[in-house]
Amino acid sequence: MICVTIACGSHKRMISEMAGLADDGIKFVELRLDFLRKMPDLGRLLPNRPLPVIVTVRRKQDGGLWSYDEERRLALIREAIVSGANCIDIESDVAGKIPRFGKTKRLISYHDFEKVPEDLDAVYEKILAQTDPDIVKIAVTPRSVGELLRLVEFMKKVNVHGRGKPTVVIGMGEIGFPTRVLGGKYGAPWACATFSPQRIVSPGIPYYKTLRDEYRYEKIKSDTEVYGVIADPIAHSLSPLIHNAAFDAAGLNKVYVPFRVPAGEAGELIDHASNLDLRGLSVTIPHKADVIGKLTQLQSAVEEIGACNTIVFRENQIVGYNTDYMASTHCIETAMGGEQNGSSPLAGKQVLVLGAGGAGKAVAYGLLDKGARVTITDRKSEKAEKVAEQLGCSFCDWDARKSYVATLIANCTSVGMFPDVDQTPIGPESIRNNMFVFDAVYNPEQTYLLRLARQKGATPISGLEMFLGQACLQFRIFTGQTASASMIRNLLKEALALSRS
Ligand code: NAP
């Protein structure tokens, strides 16, 4: 079940949001009375309510906005009980001051905005022993993969293995986000969500429609298989949106979760994949090279490029792939008319790759694999030289890119990426009408470089097709099935347009 927190300044609005959520099929809400600008009037909020409610009056020290004194706060919670609130939230340290009365359930909450306490078990035992809870809420803040893993074990212990009372376990912040989705798998009584993506009432709390429609929280069960993306930063990853939609369209009992994994911590997550029931991972910045040491089987491309963007956990093996290189060559070949009599249109063609970072290496590798004559360049010459040596291609100085004569220019730098959308890694003077111009940047879809290419009569090839292609390949590796490219393309276009609005 999803419990939506309503946190707004007026009674009128709180009442109308409750009605809107009931109409939208939500079964349970939390009213955050500390957000009301006037002294809360339970006589307006509780009678005729369309949904069961938890009444919460959060103190500032626990992330709330309550600005009156503590005695008034406790009196308001007691009044909520007398008024027949379905449930009241009481912080564990004041629970003794609020006696049980009538049918109102007692949700005893504990917060730590800094960490996952070392003595979490002891904290929990004390709550059970001393506060007379019906339900417990533990909201703490993992700062590392280790703390996230510890919290997941705690979730399992308190709910799956039947210890104590029904318990809502929340990992606040980005690193803790997986707990917000995986509660469904580990028997949480409900997941907390916010009424609007603009109202972040607790660090990392998801928008209820995202939790319901994107993660399909209500369908997550104990046997749901877990997939995810590991990255840092993670906030703008589109992978959960597309993989969850593709799982749903295929009717698969799988969920895809974003893991914010700080640099150097990917190995720890991989080592404990089975604790999370992890079946597959997308891997992105900064982990693509680091994870290779953890693989027990790997595609030769992973070794040669030095980057892995896809992992599956299969029969005690950790298998690594690189779908970036396959996707880039596929979309470039398609734009060039596809294979003719089994031969690639890239064979023998002169190609200039701009940028010797992760994308540059993968794209250059794929082009070389198809028989193209590749020259790579980077604003750091020594970096281009090193990659050229590693892949067996040529390199040139960054300044020489302007006069380089090629059939295809492939931008693999981040120049032109949102928000710097008026930048290009190469000027119009270097683009001719018989050329193909590929841009790995996909946000925006129509980069300045691609617009220049079109103006000069060259054929533009969007990085969105590469992103789409690598995701479809990952989906096939994860599931053995084919995802609908057109559905994913539409989702991506919509999400990218929204991200810039
Ligand atoms: P990366 O490893 O960090 O490499 C970044 C590259 O951009 C480096 O070559 C860097 O040059 C260059 N660069 C950055 N700012 C520059 C500037 N002002 N002038 C010239 N060069 C500059 O990142 P990456 O993973 O390769 O990603 C690069 C781009 O490709 C990003 O926009 C990313 O979103 C995109 N990408 C797209 C896909 C897709 O599926 N379409 C997949 C992967 C990546 P230095 O080496 O000199 O720093």
Q: Keywords for this structure?
A:
single chain, 501 residues, alpha/beta, TIM Barrel, Rossmann fold, 3 domains, 8-stranded parallel beta sheet, 6-stranded mixed beta sheet, 16 helices, 20 strands, 19% strand, elongated, binds NADP nicotinamide-adenine-dinucleotide phosphate
Outline the biggest β-sheet. 8 strands, parallel
How many strands appear in the DSSP assignment? 20
Distance between the termini: 32 Å
Strand content: 15-25%
Helix content range: 25-40%
List the helices and strands and how they pair.
Blueprint: E1 2-6, H1 11-23, E2 29-32, H2 42-45, E3 53-56, H3 70-82, E4 87-91, E5 105-111, H4 120-130, E6 135-140, H5 145-160, E7 167-171, H6 173-182, E8 191-194, H7 208-214, E9 225-231, H8 239-249, E10 254-260, H9 266-271, E11 278-283, E12 297-298, H10 300-305, E13 310-314, E14 317-321, H11 323-335, E15 350-354, H12 358-369, E16 373-377, H13 381-391, E17 394-395, E18 408-411, E19 436-439, H14 448-455, E20 459-462, H15 463-479, H16 485-500
Parallel strand pairs: 1-2, 1-8, 2-3, 3-4, 4-5, 5-6, 6-7, 9-10, 9-11, 12-14, 15-16, 15-18, 16-17, 18-19, 19-20
Antiparallel strand pairs: 11-13, 13-14
Helix pairs in contact: 8-16, 11-12, 11-15, 15-16
The site of NADP nicotinamide-adenine-dinucleotide phosphate has 25 residues, from helix 12 and helix 15.
